[in-house]
Amino acid sequence: MTRPIPAPVVNVESQPFWDAAREGRFLIKRCVPCGKAHWYPRAICPFCMSGETVWEESPGEGVIYSYSVMHRSPTGPYAIGYVTLDEGPAVLTNFVGVAPDGLTIGQRVNVRFQDTEGGPPVPVFAPA
């Protein structure tokens, strides 16, 4: 049974991200002046505070940095945690396609998109 995920809040700033998600594409933001990629996509760079950021398509590949297993759920245990993308940013996410006891720190994962309750699909990660 797939755990239902509430629809995300979509606003003018995040609209391009959610439009790409509907197409199965994963976008991150990159700052033009400092060159650093960041997550969650936002207009202002969290590193240098520049407003000159651009959307960049990411393959959505990375490694599990940390995770936690939620045992008390009507749909059964599930895992959430952080994935460090190959581009550098850490993404808080849900893990799918594997039992929680099949996850390990440092494990390679890839992005997938999971439907939500009435909104755009959200990125989740599964073992590579």
List keywords for this structure.
128 residues; mainly beta; OB fold (Dihydrolipoamide Acetyltransferase, E2P); five-stranded antiparallel beta sheet; three-stranded antiparallel beta sheet; 1 helix; 6% helix; globular; ChsH2_Znr; DNA-binding protein
Summary of the model, kept short:
By secondary structure, the chain is mainly beta. The protein contains 1 helix and 8 strands, in the order αββββββββ.
End-to-end distance: 21 Å
CATH fold name: OB fold (Dihydrolipoamide Acetyltransferase, E2P)
- What is the number of independent domains? 1
User: Quick check: average pLDDT?
Assistant: 95
Give a verbal description of the structure.
This is DNA-binding protein. InterPro entries: ChsH2_C, ChsH2_Znr, NA-bd_OB-fold, Thioester_dehydratase-like. One of its GO terms (molecular function) is DNA binding. There is one protein chain. The chain has a single domain (15-127), classed as OB fold (Dihydrolipoamide Acetyltransferase, E2P) (Beta Barrel). The chain is built from 1 helix and 8 strands; from the N terminus they run αββββββββ. The protein has one helix at residues 15-22, and strands at 26-31, 37-38, 53-58, 61-70, 78-85, 90-95, 108-114, 122-127. A hairpin with a 4-residue loop joins strand 5 (78-85) and strand 6. The longest helix is centred in the first third of the chain and has 8 residues, at 15-22.
